[in-house]
Write a structure and sequence with these properties.
The complex is a heterodimer of chains A (493) and B (429).
Chain A (H helix, E strand, L loop, with lengths): L4 E3 L4 E2 H9 L5 H8 L12 H11 L18 E2 H4 L34 E7 L3 H12 L5 E4 L15 E2 L6 H21 L10 E5 L2 H17 L4 E3 L1 H7 L10 E5 L3 E2 L3 H13 L3 E3 L4 E7 L2 E7 L2 E10 L5 H7 L7 E10 L9 E4 L4 E5 L5 E5 L14 H14 L7 E12 L6 E5 L1 E8 L5 H16 L7 H4 L19
Parallel strand pairs in A: 4-5, 4-14, 5-11, 7-16, 14-21
Antiparallel strand pairs in A: 1-2, 3-19, 6-10, 7-9, 8-9, 12-13, 13-14, 15-18, 15-19, 16-17, 17-18, 20-21
Helix pairs in contact in A: 1-2, 1-3, 5-9, 5-12, 6-12
Chain B lengths: L12 E5 L2 E5 L5 H7 L6 E2 L6 E2 L12 E4 L2 E5 L10 E3 L14 H5 L14 H14 L17 E4 L2 E4 L3 H12 L4 E4 L23 H11 L3 E3 L3 E6 L6 E7 L2 E7 L3 E3 L3 E2 L13 E3 H11 L6 E5 L3 H12 L3 E5 L3 E5 L6 E4 L4 E3 L2 E4 L4 E2 L2 H5 L4 E4 L4 E4 L12 E3 L9 H16 L1
Parallel strand pairs in B: 1-7, 8-14, 9-10, 9-15, 10-11, 15-27, 17-23, 18-19, 18-23
Antiparallel strand pairs in B: 1-2, 3-4, 5-6, 5-7, 12-13, 13-14, 16-24, 20-21, 21-22, 25-26
The chains are: A alpha+beta (493), B alpha/beta (429).
């Protein structure tokens, strides 16, 4: 009744597209994310052109109405078919799509003008930067600008699997993660946008004795801190997920309180609320350099002009090292690509996020019914690569069909990649680096999304003189010079 | 009259749809058999549970997903009928024709803003998450794990042509004539692309041409593969790597070649009007192919949308098949009917009673394969879609990669064949 469908796969109407544009989602990548257009089984074949036409009609530029990234596979492909490819025959190589030949396509316009000065300039409009901007504004510090080179969700914040868990191996990480989970639980009602937080639990499968020992070591800590993790048998794990092949693992760690979220709305929610409090969030604005005087940064040079600043926060995830280098500061962080995919949506069957320890495989079911899943690759070279590989599809398909054979009949509709921001001890980099007012919030090794809500609160407390949490002493950049680093080993993906 | 009364179109088997037998022709698509049976309703949409049926009939859109032999979300238009094939409609309770969850569509006539739905209080939000999850997804998990696929084969050819329509045939012909060992991969189970509609438009190459090209390819030591969808053009290891997949029979091949000519055509574009997703609204080409190849007569009264020789030729075919048919270039405002279109209201106030709407017009170019390889695309304002930027000889600016045919913009079949030949000639050196 009264609906003109722009994307029949996902029931996105033409009105939805218009509403998204009116809310400031002016570029096609953002409209795709806000409306869900082009994310269904036709993989955008039916809607891309009409969405571009509509945006142009509404006043978007050709840079804004540029097509969203081409994502393989181009036809829905059963995991069983992809598992027929031998990944060892495919060495890691450049991902696709390759950058287009010829002159660069037109870029979208910045979302607004820049002020001449701001008390705090946050570089990076991912969840870390936006959550910090909101927390600062909430504490009365509203003279804040957030600079994002692309659209919101262009980086790892928009590319992760949305897992949030308290099952960590150090007290600090458990404390931060639990605080973030509390925030996730209230996010929709407090920030006014749904994030679809669902406590389906986390099920870590242990294929060997080594992983069981890791779990047992953590169990004591979890019990002490009140985290409800249990070591369960394969038969008990099969009660949680009957589709698992129980011959593939010896035991499992089960925590029913962990969960998954839909990542994108966190950024929209933080950005909208921060802007309502006076923060300026500027997308499509690139930082090109810094000006300094003595031990302080005095201005940030951007594609849209120079902003004099009181302090600068580097919250660029895997790009933090590059941005720090613009200030002549060296960080130990290393970007490493991690690939991920989704399948077509099926009715709910998978409660928890399942991860196979020691392999990097993880998979969960989104609230739309898709399986969202990824797997790290020990052979992945360091680098800011965000393209997709066939090798990943093959490795992943073999791993997941071994773990839960029935998913072999599910079809992959889209693959993409993001960059983990890896540090030598798998722990973050916080506090000043190089300059007294150049504050780092990076190095979260693939779990920055779930840590950001809690870390942003503490960082905002620090910057507004409300107290200094121990993480700012523990996770300084200076620790890498000495031997004081305690490694976090419960990393997945 | 569900099918043309010719002996060659007689049903020779039956598929089983939601437990009842539907006459079919072995080898035709499940979608075609269901259209011939007057059943374009195949399931319900994910969010509003709107009736869904095939649109493009060519493997591009996502509107004909059904459960086949216990596997969910299978395209009815890409699945060949055989006797006893088990097909189930999806995402409806109790059934696709009478789905109680279709009430969502009525209760939310302007749509549901899921970003701001039931956000407060927190308790209500938790309930909303549970309810949304319970209603999510379209198909059900497969009944059982599929049998393992045979190992993927890695191969090298001297040239690859993706797409067996006019442009791809032209390119393959030129490459084979130069003695190149070429792989011609067509995603459908027949060569010809739009020529299969047999509308014999001005400039169309003659019908037997596709078979002549296939024979020439084979004579030059090459191969023609049908039912072979191009999954992507990856770069693992540095060299372009094309993966093509067939589901029946099941194989996956990884192909490397120093020359690739991309002629994948495009995807039929749904027109924009209220109710544009109603079952009974089809892409004109897909409908014409079902009529030409399987004698499928989709209903009694048709409206053909579009201007030019293609809609006129299609309308003539539908009339010959006994359908009362109107052609209009006017913009539609609204489709009436629920489980199937019953009338089309035009923006000029006219109402056309119909049970079938055929949408003619150039497709949106399929650019993604070329874009993966680094080819540039540009928005073609006249076409209203993105098209691969290619020179007169199909050069894309990416070494070893050419593009020709409707992937580069709107052009007739004869022009596409000529463009394909030029690209094949440029690529053969």
């Amino acid at each position: 009744m009264g609906k003109t469908l722009a994307c029949a796969c996902e029931d996105v109407t033409l009105d939805d597209v218009r509403r998204a544009f009116a809310l400031g989602h002016r570029d096609l990548e953002s409209v795709k994310r806000y409306t869900g257009l082009g994310t269904g089984p036709c993989q955008g074949k039916s809607c891309l052109a009409l969405a571009a036409r509509e945006l142009l009609r509404l006043g978007a530029t050709h840079g804004e109405a540029a097509p969203f990234t081409a994502r393989p596979p181009l036809h829905p492909t059963a995991l069983a078919a992809l598992a027929s490819v031998d990944p060892d025959s495919l060495p890691p190589g450049p991902g696709v799509p390759l950058p287009p030949a010829g002159p660069p396509p037109p870029a979208p316009r910045p979302s607004g003008p820049l002020p001449a000065r701001a008390e705090v300039v946050i570089v990076g409009g991912g969840i870390m930067g936006l959550a910090l901007a909101y927390e600062l504004a909430r504490r009365g510090l509203t003279d804040v600008v957030v600079l994002e080179r692309g659209y919101l969700n262009a980086g790892a914040s928009g590319r992760n699997g949305g897992g949030v868990r308290a099952q960590w191996s150090t007290p600090t990480m458990i404390r931060l993660a639990r605080r973030s989970i509390e925030i996730c639980d209230r996010f929709a009602s407090e920030m006014g946008v749904n994030v679809w937080f669902r406590r389906g639990g986390y099920l870590f499968l242990a294929p060997g004795q080594a992983q069981i020992r890791d779990i047992e070591r953590n169990l004591e800590l979890h019990r002490r801190m009140g985290v409800r993790t249990r070591l369960i048998s394969p038969a008990e794990a099969a009660e949680v997920v009957p589709e698992l092949d129980t011959s593939r693992f010896l035991a499992a760690a089960w925590n029913p309180d962990d969960g998954v979220v839909f990542p994108w709305p966190f950024l929209w929610g933080y950005a909208v609320r921060a802007e309502a409090l006076g923060v300026k969030v500027r997308t499509f604005t690139e930082v090109r350099g810094f000006e300094s005087a003595g031990r302080r940064l005095t201005a940030v040079v951007t594609s849209g002009g120079t902003i004099a600043c009181g302090s600068v926060v580097n919250a660029c995830g895997a790009w933090s090292k590059e941005v720090a280098r613009l200030a002549g500061v060296s960080l130990p962080n290393q970007p490493v690509r991690h690939e991920i995919l989704v399948t077509e949506a099926v009715k709910p069957w998978l409660g928890p996020l399942v991860s196979v320890l020691g392999t990097g495989l993880y998979f969960s079911q989104s609230l739309r019914g898709e399986i969202v899943a990824g797997m790290g690759d020990p052979q992945e070279p360091e680098g800011l690569e965000m393209g997709s590989s066939l090798r990943f599809l093959a490795r992943f398909a073999r791993a997941i069909t071994a773990c839960a054979p029935v998913v072999g009949g599910l079809r992959v509709i889209r693959q993409w990649a993001g960059c983990y921001d890896v540090t030598p001890d798998n722990n973050p980099v916080l506090g000043p680096a190089g300059f007294d007012n150049f504050l780092q919030m990076s190095g979260f090794v693939g779990h920055g999304f779930m840590m950001a809500p809690a870390v942003a609160e503490l960082q905002a407390d620090l910057m507004t003189g409300r107290g200094q949490d121990e993480i700012f002493e523990r996770f300084t950049v200076a620790r890498f010079a000495g031997a004081g680093a305690v490694r976090e080993d419960f990393i997945i993906g | 009259m569900p099918r043309l009364p010719e002996p060659r179109f007689a049903a020779d088997c039956a598929i089983v749809v939601d437990g009842s037998r539907v006459p079919a022709r072995g080898g035709e698509s499940v979608a075609a058999a269901l259209l011939a049976a007057g059943r374009p309703l195949l399931g319900r949409s994910p969010k509003y549970h709107r009736p869904r049926g095939p649109f493009c009939l060519a493997g591009s859109c996502g509107q004909c997903l059904v459960r086949v032999e216990g596997q969910p979300n299978v395209r009815a238009c890409r699945t060949a009928c055989r006797d006893g094939l088990r097909v189930e409609t999806q995402n409806a309770w109790p059934q696709a024709s009478h789905d109680l969850l279709g009430a969502v569509d009525w209760l939310a006539p302007r749509g549901l803003d899921h970003h701001h739905l039931a956000i407060r209080p927190a308790v209500l939000n938790r309930v909303a998450v549970r309810v949304s999850r319970a209603l999510s997804g379209t198909g059900r998990l497969p009944d059982a794990a599929p049998p393992p696929w045979p190992p993927a084969r890695e191969e090298r050819f001297e040239a690859v042509v993706v797409g067996g329509g006019p442009a791809g045939l032209g390119a393959a012909e030129a490459l084979a004539a130069a003695g190149r060992r070429v792989l011609l991969a067509e995603q459908d189970r027949w060569l010809g692309g739009r020529l299969r509609a047999r509308l014999f438009l001005p400039g169309d190459p003659p019908a037997p041409w596709a078979e002549e090209v296939a024979a020439a390819v084979r004579r030059a030591g090459g191969e023609v593969v049908l039912g072979a969808a191009a999954l992507g053009l990856w770069r693992d290891g540095g060299e372009p790597l094309l993966a093509i997949l067939s589901e029946d029979p099941r194989w996956l091949r990884l192909v490397r070649a120093p020359r690739m000519v991309l002629c994948p055509g495009g995807a039929a574009q749904p027109p924009l009007f209220d109710g544009n997703d109603r079952p009974g609204i089809f892409a004109g080409r897909g409908l014409a192919v079902a009529l030409a190849e399987h004698g499928v007569v989709p209903g009694q009264r048709a409206v053909v949308l579009g201007d030019g020789p293609e809609p006129d030729a299609l309308a003539a075919r539908l009339r010959q098949a006994g359908m009362e048919t109107a052609v209009t270039g006017a913009a539609p405002a609204r489709a009436r009917g629920r489980r199937r279109v019953t009338a089309l209201d035009l923006a000029n106030g006219l109402r056309l009673e119909c049970d079938t709407v055929a949408v003619c017009g150039p497709p949106a170019p399929a650019c993604d394969l070329a874009r993966e390889a680094g080819a540039a695309v540009a928005f073609d304002a006249a076409l209203g879609a993105f098209a691969v930027r290619a020179g007169p000889d199909g050069a894309t600016g990416v070494p070893g990669l050419w593009a020709a045919g409707e992937t580069t913009g709107a052009l007739g079949a004869g022009e596409a064949a000529a463009a394909g030949r030029r690209a094949g000639e440029a690529a053969r050196g």
